[in-house]
Amino acid sequence: MMIVMQPGATESDIESVVERIESCGARAHLSRGEEVTVIGAIGDREHVQRLGLEGHAGVQQVVPILRPYKLSSNQFKSGERSVIEIDGRRIGGEHFSMIAGPCTVESRDQVLSTAETVAAAGASMFRGGAYKPRSSPYSFQGLGQEGLRLLAEAKERTGLPIVTELMDARDVEPILEVADVIQVGARNMQNYPLLAEIGRTGRPVLIKRGLSSTLEELLMAAEYVLKEGNPNVMLCERGIRTFETAYRFTLDIMAIPMLKELSHLPVIVDPSHAPGRRDMVLPLSLAAAAAGADGIIVEVHPNPEEAICDGPQQIYAEEFAAYLEQVERAAAVAGKVLSAAA
Ligand code: PEP
Ligand code: MN
């Protein structure tokens, strides 16, 4: 159930609604908007209904949330969109974020030169994996802590916030020292203990849709983070498995408007991993931006022919500025402006 407070509700009205909810064994989840405070009551619906909160001081409305995900549901925020702030950059609403960088942290030169190039072109954040989920256990698994150290250096040089993947909850401490946004990879979207652990850190998180996951499953993954009290969740469409074999994955553009109808969370699109080849990265990015995505996470490499991982899909660093200019124009069609440091 969702309890929408009146715009003029006092702190003591809010506190006493929270107490009533907790008195029946449910959990109260507060969300303060600019005008309206909404309290999510999570627990047995009948118990909450019996409290008769409609008549309580300061309460405007009690609305049942019918979907299995509650905190990530659009109903929870009464249609208001979540805007996440990361080091002065805004994600969501009318802001468009460009997250760019290599698939994998390979060397100091590669990381620093890519970070400098994408920063100079106006990227919003820098991506790069230090821990890599590889299909083969014999493939390069990432530089680990040394990779994190290089990401920290890239951040120090460019000021760009860092997006990097956490695969194993045992690595959460070193990741927290560097990551402004923790990436949950497609293969870990249903790793519920990992999601809950990230929820407890409070650090912004980008959750990639699983290879064969429905949008509802993606929103339930977000729910695991939100439930721990971390509101800073971004959803990411990165391509799903279909019967089509002409490309690696099918980028589900329809997921963008659909997720926005179902949820208040920002929607980011990864145009690199679905095609697996760089010539499709621009058209997919334009489509995503024009369809209203809140941002893009794209792989960029100074010398993709020599990349250890995902070489064929990484766009050339020297072409990144021209790429970003075109994507910005598509984002403008959807009424969005590139997000940079305030
Ligand atoms: C990546 O971003 O490099 C990555 C491994 O992505 P995904 O989890 O979507 O495959
Ligand atoms: Mn990759």
Q: What is the spatial order of strands in the main beta sheet?
A: 7-8-9-10-11-12-13-14
What class would the helix/strand composition place it in?
alpha/beta
Order of helices and strands: EHEEHEEEEHEHEHEHEHEHEHEEHE
Biggest β-sheet strands, sense, barrel: 8 strands, parallel, barrel
- Low-pLDDT ranges: none
* Overall strand count: 16
Large-scale geometry: elongated
Bound molecules: phosphoenolpyruvate, manganese (II) ion
| Percentage of β-strand residues | 15-25%
Percent helix among the residues? 25-40%
Radius of gyration: 21 Å
User: Counting H and I runs of at least 4 residues, what is the number of helices?
Assistant: 10
User: Roughly how many Å apart are the termini?
Assistant: 37 Å
Q: How confident is the prediction overall: mean pLDDT?
A: 95
List the helices and strands and how they pair.
Layout: E1 2-5, H1 11-23, E2 27-32, E3 37-42, H2 45-50, E4 59-63, E5 84-86, E6 89-91, E7 95-101, H3 108-121, E8 125-127, H4 145-158, E9 162-165, H5 172-178, E10 181-184, H6 192-201, E11 205-208, H7 215-226, E12 233-237, H8 255-262, E13 267-269, H9 281-290, E14 295-301, E15 315-316, H10 320-333, E16 337-338
Parallel strand pairs: 7-8, 7-14, 7-16, 8-9, 9-10, 10-11, 11-12, 12-13, 13-14, 14-15
Antiparallel strand pairs: 1-3, 1-4, 2-3, 5-6
The structure holds phosphoenolpyruvate and manganese (II) ion.
Phosphoenolpyruvate binds at residues 103, 129, 133, 185-187, 208, 238, 270, 273.
